[in-house]
């Protein structure tokens, strides 16, 4: 499936009098815009300043702003932006009764979902239609605990986990490899404690990178942890998120960009945060308005 997801343009208003700068972001059916005002002093000075400012803001925006797809309810998708997390559109996915998780698959640039009966589907973001791809050949015991659905971009394999169970799935055939149960490594201060992994994501999720790293959220200790050996299930605590209150839901993803830059985003309850991958500290971006029931999963979509 091929689709255009995001397009940005930034330009000053035309002469003779220039008083503002408009930045508009578009994707089919999903749009946002903002206006940056400039004071008018001298006509030539203003035009030069605005042109320079436009180039600077365009570069900065391209580095940090991206569309986010969120999963709420049984099968409702919502779209918002990483800079201004207000829901701009929502749609129900058709062809499934429920989704346990979603993710963007960098290998073929599609959005996939997983159903409670272990079907892997692709989701058309224009129509909401789900199309079957494969069904897993080994079942994961599903309870009320959150389910992790995230792609390893380097291997093009789906990480599928709940509780301490750790599966690796071929997304095209459904073949499941049962990997090592999740457990904190011997040198970690949480050794012997039962992990409470509620969300996970890989770095460098763009194309097929030469390296990647997997990070998780542990709800019990309220911290970012690294799954240092994803196939073995070994965990190492990075640091506390620092949230004031424990949220009702967690959703986590890492936005990979060209050049190896990675920005981690956490939807905790109804608030969006960035997460420092070196310290674990969460920094509030703002409330996710329009997603009152909280988000069960998110995936940051690339600009294409």
TrEMBL record:
Top-rank taxon, per record: Bacteria
Pfam families according to UniProt: DUF4394
Occurrences of domain DUF4394 (ranges): 76-298
Keyword line: Membrane, Transmembrane, Transmembrane helix
Transmembrane residue ranges: 48-69
Full protein name: DUF4394 domain-containing protein
Organism of provenance: Agrobacterium fabrum (strain C58 / ATCC 33970) (Agrobacterium tumefaciens (strain C58))
């Amino acid at each position: 499936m091929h689709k255009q997801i995001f397009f940005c343009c930034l330009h000053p208003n035309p002469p003779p009098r220039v008083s503002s700068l408009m930045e508009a972001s578009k994707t089919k059916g999903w749009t946002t815009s903002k206006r940056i005002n400039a004071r008018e002093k001298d006509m030539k000075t203003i035009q030069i300043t605005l042109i320079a400012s436009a180039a600077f803001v365009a570069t900065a925006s391209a580095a940090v702003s991206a569309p986010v797809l969120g999963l709420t309810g049984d099968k409702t998708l919502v779209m918002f932006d990483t800079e201004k997390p207000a829901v701009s559109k929502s749609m129900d996915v058709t062809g499934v009764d429920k989704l346990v998780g979603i993710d963007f698959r960098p290998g073929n640039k599609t959005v996939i979902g997983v159903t409670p009966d272990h079907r892997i589907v692709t989701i058309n973001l224009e129509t909401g239609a789900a199309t079957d791809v494969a069904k897993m050949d080994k079942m994961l015991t599903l309870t009320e605990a959150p389910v992790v659905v995230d792609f390893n971009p380097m291997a093009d394999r789906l990480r599928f986990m709940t509780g301490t169970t750790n599966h690796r799935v071929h997304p095209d055939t459904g073949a499941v490899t049962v990997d090592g149960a999740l457990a904190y490594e011997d040198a970690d201060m949480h050794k012997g404690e039962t992990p409470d992994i509620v969300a996970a994501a890989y770095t460098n999720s763009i194309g097929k990178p030469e390296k990647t790293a997997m990070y998780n959220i542990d709800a019990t200790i309220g911290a970012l942890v690294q799954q240092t050996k994803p196939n073995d299930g070994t965990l190492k605590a990075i640091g506390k998120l620092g949230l004031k209150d424990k949220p009702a839901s967690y959703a986590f993803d890492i936005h990979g960009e060209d050049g190896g830059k990675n920005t981690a985003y956490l939807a905790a309850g109804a608030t969006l945060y960035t997460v420092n991958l070196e310290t674990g500290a969460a920094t509030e971006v703002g409330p996710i308005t329009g997603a009152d029931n909280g988000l069960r999963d998110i995936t940051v979509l690339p600009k294409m």
